[in-house]
Every structure is written in C-alpha cells, then in structure tokens.
Amino acid sequence: MKTFDVVAVGSGTVDLIFRVPRLPGNDDKVIGKKVAELIGGTVANSACVMGKLGLRVTSLSTAGDDYYAQAIIDDFHRNGVDTRFILRKPGVAANMAIIFLDDSGEKALVYAPNDETETCMVQAPQAIDCSRLVYMMPGQLDKFRTLARYAREKNTKVVIDVESHIKNSQQNIKEMLSLSDVAIFNKEGFRTSLQQEPDAEVLRRLVEEHDLDALVVTCGGEGVIACDRKGVATHPGYNVSVIDTTGAGDTFNGAFIYCYLNNRELNDALSFASAAAAINISHVGARGKLSTVDDVNKFKEQYQ
Taking a C-beta distance cutoff of 8 angstroms, is the pair 92, 69 a contact? Predict the structure, then answer.
C-alpha cells in the first residue's frame, strides 16, 4: 500500500484580495478596498481540498524561509496536507497573486510567480513512488514529461489541470493527454488548447484517442461536462449566492479527484465536486470554506 493517495505538484501562493465596484479595463482606474491577505495557489488549493475530504495528500513544492513561507506551510498542515517534500530555500520570495472581486463575485487575477519556487525534481521520484496519483499543471512540458513518465513506471495515476495561460498548450496538448489518465480543463483552457468547443462527441473522441479514464471541462456558471469510458455526463452546477469565485475550479478539481480515487460514478462525481465548489464560492478566498465529506453531503441534501 502506498503512503499517500495524492502528491500535489505546485507551490503555495499569497493572495491579496481587493473588492472593486467593477473590474478595471485598459488605461482605467477604480477605487477598491483590500479585504484579505490569504494563502492560495492553484494546485496547492486542490491539495487542501483533498486533505479536508480525508485523502492522504503530500505537497511536492518549494518555499522560502520568511513569514509567508511559514504561513503557506501552516495552512497545508491546517488542511491535512503533508509537507515532507517541500524544499525550504532561504531568501526565496513566495508566489503572489492580486485578485480583484467585483460586486457579482466574479474575479480578475494577476499572478506573479517566482521561478525559484519551481518543483524540486530531486525529491520528485520518492514523492511519486509513494503516491497513488500525481496531480499537476503541465505548464513546463519537460518537467511534466519527466514526472508523468516516471509516474507511469510506478503505477501512479496522472491527473492534469489545463488552463488557458499554459504556454504552448495548443502545440503540446496531444502529448499532455497521452501522458495522463485524467485531464481537467476550464472552458477557456479547452478552447485554447484544442481549438474546439467541449461538446459530447469531441470529449468521447478524445477519451478514446488518448485512452483516458476521464476528461472534464468546467464551464463556470454553465456547469460542467465530462466523459469517461462509460459515457458522457453533465451537471448544471448549484445556484448559490456568490461571494468570491477564486478557487472554484481548484475546489472542483480536488473534490473530483477524491471521487475518482474512490471509484464513484461520473454523474455522482460531478454532483459532489460541483457542490464542494458551490460551498466554497459562498465565502471569501480560494480556501474560504473547504468542506468535509459530511459538509458536501449535507449541502446536497438541503439543496434538494
């Protein structure tokens, strides 16, 4: 039996959150208010979601030695994420994100990564070897290729999150999919990478062509569409009062992986993950309200 269910490859981020009456445009200025300084990070958020749901999760990442680095590590611990594979590098500044929320709860985000927080490849083999699944964004193709191929050798499943900002995703998407077991896109990431709309027939073809266990496309307020080896499923999402959509996709992804590792049917997985995301967007911050399994089940019962 492997020590961990999931190794999550990606460093934490410090999120500076501002409330604005509307999202600014080009050559524009709006008056806003800083509402929070919180810990986030795309893969790191999903790791905390999975830890809260009861999976055995470890982070493969890098952090500095300052206040922010300790806050990132403390928040992992708070949400049940193991940190033995986090490399501490003195003097390294944390990744930062500035997030603007308008009155509807929708967001605009500026992300400032620090290259010094890139994944530590020295510790990667050990982390992957002792995990059932590796979850990552395939932004750096060479690193992704190395980690995914090693995971295959060790019978570790590979799940990727593909978003629109990933460099050269259109040129590399076929290789990314061929090295994965599950691929999760947001709608813009799917359009950018595949130059197609995410309809049922396209998803069926991609699952068959790349021998995927599942392919999922989240579509914001329009819900989600997914396909596995048994067929296509959709879920419209849950109608809730939106406070902050930051981390909605990260929460969905983490909850979907929980379902995948627990062999849940696709319809049930989409419903469960959508519920977890709906709970979280009713609070401020990417980790505003990370749910337990009981929390999600109670929400679904009350929603019905």
Answer: yes
- Cα separation of 56 and 6, whole Å? 6
> What's the rounded mean pLDDT across residues 115-119?
60
Q: What's the one-letter identity of residue 29?
A: K
Query: Which residue shows structure tokens 């709309």?
Result: 197
DSSP per-residue string spanning 168-186: THHHHHHHHHHT-SEEEEE
Token pair recorded at residue 105 = 């709860």
Six token digits for residue 161: 């999150």
Burial class of residue 263 in the structure, from the number of CB atoms within 10 Å of its CB (0-12 exposed, 13-18 middle, 19+ buried): exposed
For residue 110, with 0-12 CB atoms within 10 Å meaning exposed, 13-18 middle and 19 or more buried, which class applies?
exposed
pTM over 0.70: yes
DSSP code per residue over 228-268: ETTEEEEE-------S--TTHHHHHHHHHHHHHHTT--HHH
Alpha helices per DSSP H over the chain: 42-52, 67-78, 124-129, 141-153, 169-178, 187-194, 200-209, 248-261, 266-280, 293-303
How does pLDDT run across 201-256, given as a tens digit for each residue? 999 999 999 999 999 999 988 999 999 999 999 999 999 998 888 889 999 999 99
Q: What's the CA gap between 183 and 17, in Å, rounded?
A: 29
How far, CA to CA in Å, does 267 sit from each of 118, 201, 276, 292? Answer: 35, 17, 14, 20
* Strand partners of residue 111: 97
User: What tens digit of pLDDT does each residue of 161-206 get?
Assistant: 998 887 777 889 999 999 999 999 999 999 999 999 999 999 999 9
